[in-house]
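YM 10:42: Taste receptor type 2 sequence, as discussed on the call
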Amino acid sequence: PRQQSNVTAYGVFTVAIITLEAFPGMWINAFIVCVLCIAWVKKKTLNSNEKILLLLGCSRFWYLCIAWIYKFLSFIYPNYLYVQTILQLAVLFQAFFNQCNLWFSACLCGFYCIKIANFRNRFFIYLKVKIDRMVPWLLLGSQILAMAVGIVAYDVADKPHCNSNSTRQGNFGTAHIKMDKHFFPSFFIAGFEYAASFMVVIFAAIFLLFSLWRHKRTMQTNSMKDLSMDAHIRAMKSIFSFLVVYSINFVCLVLNMVYVTKKANRLTFLILVFQYIFPGLHSLILVFSNPKLEKALLKILP
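YM 10:58: structure's back
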């Protein structure tokens, strides 16, 4: 009984920590969605940057909401997850919105890079001209890739190898899966998409940094000032701050895949902490890097 009470107290503590991280994240993403929707109603249109931010805010809000509900049930009412359909749907939507979060973020970084960076390459100029038309297709492709991972996660949760007893209290609500040849393709697909979206962010940061360096050298040579320097610096701050946060999140995602088959409670707890911080922290960075969102936030805070 003493051990059981300790486990229960530990589960309640974990849920409390996750709640303190998830609810501010849901609030800041809901704020982004509301501001952009109001602007959409007033202007009857949204630019490409706002379209990406709108879908990114929606995906992060629902990811945090569903992930929090899943963890809450896992720790407080684990019996509800013994129903196979509930577990499958929770895993499906959580994986889908998590992948949407990663791909929309990568699209945003790529959009900043193409719009702001200056290169004389013909292909880059073509992308700069066509990027606004490409954004809806990129967002649609991101959702298709995310749905593919969600379907794979649904299939994994449906396998008999999944241990339903893993939802008991004290196991961090993780469906411990026996790693074998049946599940290797699932982990490979998810890992490939993690790495692909991460590489988009890295290349966007490198190209934008190189463009900033060339632009600054040209300005020093010609002894003139250019307003695009401010745009470069603002975008670099946003992308590099995102790169740091994204790198931590990427490591946590990989560790989560590695330790999903093991009972590494302390490490799993740290992984959960960083994963729940990421959607809210990066959205807060995006708010303060966007003049419209920053002005609206500072207006409602008092």
